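in:
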C-alpha cells in the first residue's frame, strides 16, 4: 500500500537539513542581501548550530507544506531560461503558463525576452541556440514516477526530467558561480533514472548529467544574458542507487512521522 509521495527535489531539501553546519550557513538580512554565517572580522557566528537547525527545519517544513513565498530573481531566471531552451529545441511557443517569451530588439541587437514571476530577462539568441543545439533530439519535461519499498511502507518518487535522450538524463541548472561537484549530493541523479527504469519507461540509463550554466549579464550595464557551460556527469548504477534511495527515504519518513503534527500537506502521506 502506498504510504508516502515525494518529489525528488524535496529530498535535496532534506539532505541540506541533514548536512548544513553552522559555519557553512548563509542567511538573508532585512535588505535581502545574503551573508555567510561566520564572520572572520568578528570571529563569531551570527547563528548557532541549534538556531541553524531550527531555521533549516522550518524551511523544510515550509517546502513540505507548500507555503507560498516571494519569488526569487535567481530561481525565476532559471525557470525562464529552461523554458526558452525547450521552446528552441522543439520549435514551439511557451507551454509554461508562468513564462512569457517573445523576440525583441535591444539597441539594435535581437534578443529573446522572457518574463517570469514579474521579472524580465533578456537572453542572447546565439547563446540560447547553442544550448538548444546541445540538447537537440531530447525529450523535454518528462514526468516520471515509480515506487520503492521501505520499512515505513511504500514510497512513490516522482518528478519532471528536464531533458532525456537515449540512455542519458539531463538536469539543466543555472548558477552565478560554479565549482565542480556542486551537485554531487542532489538526489535527482539517483531518483530520475531509478523511476525511469522501475516504471518501464526505459530499460537502461547509463549516466546523469547536471548541465550547469554559469550565467552572466542581466544588469543595467550588461543587459543581455549569456553563460558558460559546465557539464557535471555521473555514471548510473541502478542497484547502488536503489539502496541509497531506500536509505534516504527511510530517514525522511522518520522525519515526517516525528513531525506529523506540523505537516498540513497530507498529500505527502498519500492522503486527500
Amino acid at each position: 500500500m502506498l504510504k508516502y509521495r515525494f518529489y525528488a527535489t524535496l529530498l535535496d531539501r532534506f539532505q541540506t537539513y541533514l548536512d548544513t553546519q553552522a559555519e557553512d550557513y548563509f542567511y538573508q538580512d532585512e535588505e535581502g542581501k545574503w551573508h555567510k554565517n561566520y564572520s572572520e572580522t568578528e570571529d563569531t557566528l551570527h547563528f548557532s548550530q541549534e538556531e541553524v537547525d531550527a531555521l533549516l527545519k522550518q524551511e523544510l517544513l515550509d517546502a513540505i507544506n507548500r507555503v507560498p513565498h516571494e519569488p526569487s530573481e535567481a530561481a525565476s531566471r532559471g525557470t525562464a531560461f529552461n523554458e526558452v531552451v525547450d521552446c528552441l529545441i522543439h520549435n514551439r511557443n511557451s507551454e509554461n503558463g508562468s513564462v512569457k517569451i517573445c523576440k525583441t530588439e535591444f539597441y539594435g541587437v535581437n534578443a529573446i525576452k522572457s518574463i517570469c514571476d514579474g521579472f524580465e530577462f533578456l537572453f542572447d539568441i546565439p547563446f540560447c541556440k547553442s544550448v538548444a543545439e546541445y540538447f537537440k533530439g531530447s525529450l523535454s519535461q518528462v514526468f516520471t514516477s515509480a515506487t520503492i519499498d521501505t520499512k515505513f511502507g511504500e514510497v512513490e518518487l516522482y518528478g519532471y526530467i528536464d531533458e532525456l535522450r537515449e540512455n542519458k538524463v539531463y538536469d539543466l541548472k543555472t548558477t552565478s558561480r560554479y565549482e565542480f561537484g556542486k551537485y554531487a549530493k542532489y538526489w535527482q541523479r539517483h531518483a530520475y533514472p531509478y523511476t525511469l527504469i522501475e516504471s518501464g519507461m526505459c530499460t537502461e540509463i547509463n549516466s546523469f548529467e547536471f548541465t550547469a550554466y554559469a550565467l552572466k549579464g542581466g544588469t543595467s550595464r550588461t543587459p543581455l544574458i549569456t553563460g558558460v557551460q559546465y557539464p557535471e556527469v555521473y555514471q548510473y548504477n541502478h542497484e547502488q542507487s536503489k539502496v541509497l534511495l531506500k536509505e534516504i527515504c527511510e530517514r525522511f519518513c522518520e522525519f515526517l512521522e516525528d513531525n506529523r503534527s506540523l505537516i498540513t500537506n497530507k498529500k505527502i502521506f498519500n492522503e486527500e
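note: Helices lie at 8-19, 49-64, 73-90, 125-134, 188-198, 238-258.
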